[in-house]
Structures are given as structure tokens and as C-alpha cells.
């Protein structure tokens, strides 16, 4: 028979004969502790084998003479075992509650390869992954970042870290022999949390022995507190803090996982451990007086027989004033927490960093490209997860888990913190944030998991600019989830250069319906994506009036889907298909369906290799169109005859203006700056040689028109435009 006794530190065993009597009869009824002691004495069932698990601090509770062998379970001493764990964990279908069917084995292999390479060159993370539970955290975070197609309410980054702590510390008391019976997690929040918070506030991640002494307040502790500290140091300290392996920092400590510093700092603040003495006294006195006042009725009934009746109101008022006063004092903590959260969330010195999801991704998988030189000074530490974790910890689900860990955050406290920070958050969000910071803000609202709060914060957000943010399926889901808390119309949604694909558009579909101006340039959106856009534009709730699809490989098939959408759409007034590889066939398809449209006002078909036939056909249809008055056709393969035919168009007679070149007879076109601005913005993405040829032709046209006019004012205008074109040509020639 093999007995496995798990968690010796929870049992208060007494091996003295006076404390526990001898017992060798399995049938004799004795207390459970007596059974365990006699098993370990080998007095009861001596032939049985016994394995006892315990934390290091409780090892000596069993006298050495009863122990045959000691073994310490350390972690993955073999890196190949570590890699095998990652391989098995990341290849599990439906891991972390996610449906992983859609992810290819190639993507998993790529993740494993990047993770292995980063572990080889990032010693600190490799040291952390020595512990299997940190390997679990790394894998769960990767699943969250890469295999999340839709975000369930419980799936948040804070939720992952909270679950990780429950996995390791659920039901754990720091020292079962101590009368305070403090939970291990509560002790960690008070001590390590304080160190983490002070590190976040002073922007540092490495801590000296002096920093540790100061935070743990060794000099000020009683004997009982010192015993708790000793247990903590032997059992838990190495789990959260580890010696730094970076050269020159050998005698300092860092958090085993960097993000854990921000989580514990957030927990320290939200639990109200960052209090002044007045706040602490206020809360305690309020509770004490509150308990006393329950028995006051009995006391007053006795006193009233002795004292005159006029003194009774005075006594009642005193009892009423104190609890109110002290609860009001302790209530100021809620404002302080809200202020800290809002201040950190909108900290301007962290602007223009990658958003937090990319930062987490980089920390686990590394950054592709050249490594930093060892002598190069590191960037300033960024702590953008700190306010996000504060919001996440206040969510109902995480509060319930933390309650199990002995870290209680009441519903009322969470409500008051949310109420206190609402105005600040809404006011700051209206100022307009850089794209990566706006993504962090949306992620914060998602982590907060408070639908009413999110709805009020998002209602004021009329313009959403996320250009150049790499919109992974997770980020798309977060955006859709947060924006889905309201149904207000969005004036502008900018998703330029966001790595969108067909599945991204599918996730964002409910949000896109409500956007008046929709920027989808530079996203490699092909014909499949155009099919989604067609369904979007034909939806009866679609309000999109300005759609920009420039620099996407739409092609002929994509043009077919967009043309079908144009025929029956009622909201679109401006459509840009600049540089979308339409060709003559694509333009012809759009022209055929354009006649059925009744609302379009401006159409951009520039830089699409259109020849005279297609260009003139589009213009002929535009002439008969009720509202279309502007067609962009510059940078196409239109002959001189075609240009003359287009040039002869008159707005008052034909009802449409074609933007083909920068001249209008012997004058500069009214739209020359519009055309050059479009070219300027797109120079980095267009074929340089072809653009150079077009600009050279434009320059010749300008010079020819300038020579034909005798008006000095017009000549000056021509010279100004020529100088702008020459600047662009100069940049192209220098490869700039």
C-alpha cells in the first residue's frame, strides 16, 4: 500500500507520546491526526510506503528519524523536457477553453520555434520557465494572444493571471500555526505587492537587498511577524522574485515574470493596502463603533433611567457621527485608487509605445530582427499593464477568485471606484489618443468587464483611429466587444495598415455597420474580403458613407463584388479604389453597375492601369448619374487624345469633373493640391519607377501650359506647382 499525504504544512501533528498515543491496530477508532502520526512512526502498517509533500518551512515537523529520504522538486532541469512541455501544451486542441480547430499546425510550429529561440537568448524568461507553472502561464498567454477568435466574457489577461495564482495558492495559509491564519496570497499582496508598486511608481524592475528589507519592514516587525516572514522567504519568495541574470546586476532581484510585478502592484492598490495611517484608523474605528452600536440599545435603556431625557439625543448623535465620519475618511481610498488608475492609464510618457498586447507578445516570443548590443542602454521601463490589471481585478469574476485566495474586494468598493474614475476616464478619452494608446484604452475597458461603465465611456468616442496597430483576431474581438456595449454611430473608424483579413472583417462586422467613414487602406484585402464588404454595404442597417479601400489587391473579382454592392447601397457617397489593381475589366464592371446607384458623389479610380476605353466609359456613365460629380483618373494609362476628351468636360454642361492632371487649359487645376497630397501619402507604397514616369509627364504638361499663358499670376501658380512636383521627383531619385 502507498499512502500519499499532500500538504503536511496544513496539519499540526504532535509526535510526542504524551500528545499522540501509540496505535498499531487499523481497526481502532482514533482521530485522523493520530492515524497520520502512527503511520509516519511506522507503528501502524509498518510495511506500507508513504510519500509526504510539504513546503520547505514544514519539513522539520516530522522528526528526521521517521524520514527515509528527502527530495526537492525544483522544476525542469532539462531544457528538452521544457520544450516538450511547450510542444504538447500548444498542440492541444481547445486548450484554455478555446476552439483551436482553425489554427494550422504551421502556425503552432512557428510559435514553438520563436518561443525556443527567445528562451535561448533571453536568460531571465528561461530561468522563469524552470518552474512548470510558469510554463503553463506562458502557454495560456500564447493561446490567448494567437488562438482567440471570439472573446468569451471570462477570457481576459487579468483572468489568466488570477487563475494562475489560484492554481498555485488556492486554500493556502502562510503558516497554520500562526493565530492570524493569514492566507498566503493576502500576505504576498501586502509585502511583494508593496515592492511591486514602489517599483512601478519609480519605473524600475531590479531590486536590491536594501529595497527588500525596506518593503518587508524587517526592523519594525514583532516576533510573530518575523516568523511569518521566515516562512514566506523559505516557501514563496523564490516563486515571485529571482536573482537577476543580466551582466552587472548579479546581486539584484527581479520578478520571475515581468508582468507579475504589474499585477501584484495593481492588487496592492485595489486591496487598499496603499493607505495612510488616518485611513487605516478610520476603517478600523468605523467597524468597531459599528459593532458597539448594535448593543447600544441595551446600554441606553439602562442609562435612561438615571440621566435626564435631554441627554439622550446627544448620545445618539455621537454614535451616528463617528461611523459616518470614519467611513467617509476610509472612503477617500476609493478616490485615490480611481485617481491612480486613471493617471496611469493616460500617462503621457508611455505614449507611442507598442500596445500592451504586442509588448506581451514580444516578451514571450522575442522581437524579430537584430538584437540590442549588450553595451547599449536599455529603453525606459514601460508599465502599461498596471492600470489595465487594476481594472481587470475589479471585474466580478476575478474578485470572486481573489475572495477564495483571501483577498476580499467588496462589490460596493468596486462600484465606488468605478464611479470615482468614470469622469476622469471619459474626459481623458475625449482628448484623442495615439492609436496604440487607444488600443490599450479599449483593452482596459474589456478587462474591466463592466458593461455599463464601458457603454458610458465609449459613447463619447466618435472617432476611432487605430491606424498601424496590428489587429490580431484577439484585438478585433476586443474592439467588437467594447464597441458592442452601445449602438451609437461612429463618425470615423481608421483601420489603415492594420493587417486586416477576411476573418477580421467578419469579427468587426457589427462595428463596421455603424461607421460613417471607414478607412481600410493598405490591408491586403483581396476578393474574399470584398465579398464581406459587399454584404456590409447591402445590410439594411449600414450607415457607411465614405469607404476608402486604396492600396488593396481588390482585382477584377473584388470589383465584381463591390459593383454589386454599389447597385443597391443607399448610404455610400464617397468610394476610393485608388491603386487596387482593377484594370480595364474591373472599371468596366463598376461602370455597368454604377447606373443603378443613386447616391454616390465621388469615385476614385486613380492608378489602376485604365486605358482610354475604360476611363471614357466610366465618365459617360458618370455624366448620366444623378449625384456623381467627381471621378479621379490620375496616374492611369490614358493617351493624349483621351486626356483631351476628358479635359473638354465641363461641370455646368456635363455634370461631372474628371481629375486626370494638374492643369486646366492655361490655368492650374483647382484640385492640384488634392492630387499631389494623395501621391505624397502613397509614395512609400507605389512602384517608384512608374510613379517617376507619371510625375515626369505631369511636369512636362505643367511647363507646356505655363509657356502658353501670358498671365503673370497664372505663371506664378504654375511655378509653385512645378516646384512641388520637382521635390517629389528629387525624393524618388534619392530613394528617400
Automatic annotation (TrEMBL):
Pfam families: LRR_6 (PF13516), NACHT (PF05729), NLRX1_C (PF21402). Residues 1-86 form the NACHT domain. Keywords: ATP-binding, Leucine-rich repeat, Nucleotide-binding, Repeat. It comes from the Eukaryota. GO terms for molecular function: ATP binding. Residues 668-729 form the NLR family member X1 C-terminal domain. SMART domains: LRR_RI (SM00368). This is NLR family member X1. InterPro entries: Leu-rich_rpt, LRR_dom_sf, NACHT_NTPase, NLR, NLRX1_C. The keyword ATP-binding applies.
